[in-house]
């Protein structure tokens, strides 16, 4: 992962670099660092910890310079400490890197034999030494080109030079990199989000590209050193969503935004007068789609499983769901009229992008459901369906999940309608009920105090299970993911019907088991599975919209009662208490809510 920023300016840039690094912390927060050119020398400042720690360090050193690069790290090679933090510098050059150099140990061996002394355990340091070695016999640009030829793996790089002290070189292979334009100032960033507060005009590097930034201009070269032109894109995302407002953390803000987000997203897609979903330009005529493949990671993958259930419910299309990191290495055969749908909040997830690139290479038709519309995934897809939820900063994905399933549902309903596979009254009933979902979500959020109280009982648990069937199965997976990610407590999401095939052995007296059982066609079966858990001592938290009173008679420990809703729309409601539960348990444990340990918001390495 990691985040990169570079600024070439006419004025002192250390404050601007620090401010950008704070915005980039969603990509990594193990350690941070800056290098600038100051009085003809490379000055490097770096430390373990967050950007706030770097800020304290820099205050003591009076850092200045008009040319500089900065980095936030998510450790891959070497522990997250000061020495392994980026930049990695020699007397001649300073480098920040996002990605993984797969042949670093071979290169390191060669360089050590030539007398180079390595300080860190990182793969990145080989780049610093290779460029330094090449600079002995060539100019800065050739030294970078020669270095890149030796590297295997993925990278986005920012490089500054002692002797060529008015420029920054950027290079991309596999990991995204953008540049931004302003008067007498040019920027390099690991994505456009990093640049958004400084400029609205950006260009994106393609794989193999190199760029050279000075304060006045940016030159681009392809992998054959041929000068190339780049399209300039206008950024659109609003700045306001990057602030916490009156909320304690971004996650609570983002959870509470969900009613608004649902309304906004529906407004973007629904013609309210004709009650028609406005999605056009399908990469394949919906009537001809033979199979749909949904591919994503983490929370977005769970959204895809929800999508699979809806596709099967409303259409006759075959559906396959894949985790991107598995899909990309399987022996996939792309066939005609198969639609490949990629779901991602950031649009920068390395595995998802690699899966999409594979599909494109094989000639598949692709569609991206994304939040960040200026992302790599969007730029590579045939059709882009934005989820319109605004910037999501908390590492734990909440409102993006809601947006992802909402857009998936609208897309699926539209396809079902075009294929004549959904009855007109079912289509209009679901749309009518969808327009009320936001008010039900508000009701659940208004009841968050009771979930906060429940959370107290989870702080010292050994482990927990989240169970559901049908549409509630992916919600159970998502509830467990949110719970472990935020609370650092073990949680397993499982199809309720699978318990007796193994996991029931985990259940012991007092173990919390969260059962998601909306009143759909699986309700009775889920309640039977719940009874099997109760019989083994499991402590049940039931999440349901059933009408009858069962808490005491069925030995349920506690219950979160949801508003009643159309049976196919239950995921929009049942997911909310699970987000709140994870949030409050983490809060009570004193965990970092927006930056859970060992994680990053945008997973840009495989
Ligand atoms: O940006 P993406 O949606 O592609 O990210 C995918 C996952 O990394 C992400 O959903 C992750 O699982 C979340 N942190 C879970 O809350």
CATH superfamily of the largest domain: Aminohydrolase, N-terminal nucleophile (Ntn) domain
In the CATH scheme, the class of the largest domain would be: Alpha Beta
Task: Please indicate the count of domains.
Answer: 3
The total count of strands amounts to 27
End-to-end CA span: 9 Å
Order of strands in the sheet with most strands: 3-2-4-1-10-9-11-15
Largest sheet: 8 strands, antiparallel
DSSP summary: helix tally: 18
Mean pLDDT: 93
Radius of gyration, taken over Cα atoms and rounded to an integer in Å: 25 Å
The stretches of 5 or more residues where confidence is low (pLDDT under 50) are: none
Architecture of the largest domain, CATH level 2? 4-Layer Sandwich
Q: Work out the helicity level.
A: 25-40%
CATH topology of the largest domain: Glutamine Phosphoribosylpyrophosphate, subunit 1, domain 1
Helices and strands: which structural class? Answer: alpha/beta
Strand portion: 15-25%
Q: Which small molecules are bound? A: 5-amino-5-deoxy-1-O-phosphono-D-mannitol
Shape: globular
């Amino acid at each position: 992962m990691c985040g990169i920023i570079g600024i070439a300016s006419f004025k002192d840039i250390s404050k601007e670099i620090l401010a950008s690094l704070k915005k980039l912390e969603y990509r990594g927060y193990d350690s941070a660092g800056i290098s600038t050119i100051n009085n003809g020398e490379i000055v490097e400042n770096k430390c373990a910890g967050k950007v706030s720690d770097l800020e304290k360090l820099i205050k003591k050193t009076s850092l200045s310079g008009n040319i500089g690069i900065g980095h936030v790290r998510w450790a891959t090679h070497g522990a997250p400490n000061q020495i392994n933090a980026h930049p990695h510098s020699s007397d001649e050059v300073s480098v920040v890197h996002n990605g993984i150099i797969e042949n670093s140990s071979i290169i390191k061996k060669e360089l050590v034999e030539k007398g180079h002394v390595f300080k860190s355990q990182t793969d990145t340091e080989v780049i610093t030494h290779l460029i330094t070695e090449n600079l002995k016999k060539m100019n800065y640009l050739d030294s970078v080109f020669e270095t890149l030829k030796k590297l295997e793996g993925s990278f986005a790089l920012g490089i500054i030079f002692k002797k060529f002290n008015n420029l920054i070189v950027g290079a991309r292979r596999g990991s995204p990199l953008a540049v931004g334009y302003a008067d007498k100032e040019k920027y390099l960033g690991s994505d456009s989000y990093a640049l958004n507060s400084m400029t609205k005009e950006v260009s994106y590097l393609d794989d193999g590209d190199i760029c050279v930034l000075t304060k006045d201009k940016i030159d681009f070269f392809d992998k054959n050193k041929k000068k190339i032109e780049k399209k300039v894109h206008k950024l659109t995302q609003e700045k306001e969503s990057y602030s916490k407002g009156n909320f304690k953390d971004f996650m609570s803000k983002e959870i509470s935004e969900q009613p608004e987000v649902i309304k906004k997203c529906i407004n973007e897609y629904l013609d309210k007068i004709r009650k028609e979903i406005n999605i056009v330009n399908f990469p394949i005529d919906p009537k001809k789609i033979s199979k749909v493949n949904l591919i994503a990671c983490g929370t977005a993958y769970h959204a895809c499983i929800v999508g699979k259930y809806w596709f099967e419910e409303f259409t006759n299309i075959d559906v396959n769901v894949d985790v991107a990191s598995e899909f990309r290495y399987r022996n996939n055969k792309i066939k005609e009229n198969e639609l490949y749908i990629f779901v991602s909040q950031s649009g920068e997830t390395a595995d998802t992008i690699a899966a999409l690139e594979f599909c494109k290479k094989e000639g598949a038709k692709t569609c991206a459901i994304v939040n960040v519309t200026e992302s790599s995934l969007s730029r590579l897809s045939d059709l882009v369906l934005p989820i319109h939820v605004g910037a999501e900063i908390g590492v734990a994905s909440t409102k993006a999940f809601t947006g992802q399933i909402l857009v998936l549902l609208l897309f699926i309903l539209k396809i079902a309608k075009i294929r004549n596979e959904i009855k007109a009254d079912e289509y209009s009933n679901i749309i009518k009920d969808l327009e009320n979902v936001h008010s039900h979500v508000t009701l659940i959020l208004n009841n968050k105090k009771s979930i906060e109280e429940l959370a107290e009982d989870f702080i010292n648990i050994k482990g927990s299970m989240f169970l559901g069937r049908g549409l509630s199965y992916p919600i159970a997976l998502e509830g467990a993911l949110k719970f472990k990610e935020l609370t650092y407590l073990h949680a397993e999401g499982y199809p309720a019907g699978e318990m007796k095939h193994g996991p029931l052995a985990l259940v012991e007296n007092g173990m919390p088991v969260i059962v998601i059982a909306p009143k759909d066609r699986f309700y009775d079966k889920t309640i039977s599975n719940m009874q099997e858990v109760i019989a083994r001592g499991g402590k049940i938290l039931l999440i349901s919209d059933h009408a009858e009173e069962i808490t005491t008679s069925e030995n349920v420990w506690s219950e979160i009662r949801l508003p009643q809703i159309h049976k196919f729309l239950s995921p929009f409601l049942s997911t909310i208490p699970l987000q709140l539960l994870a949030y409050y348990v983490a809060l009570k444990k004193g965990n970092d809510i927006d930056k859970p340990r060992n994680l990053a918001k945008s997973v840009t390495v495989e």
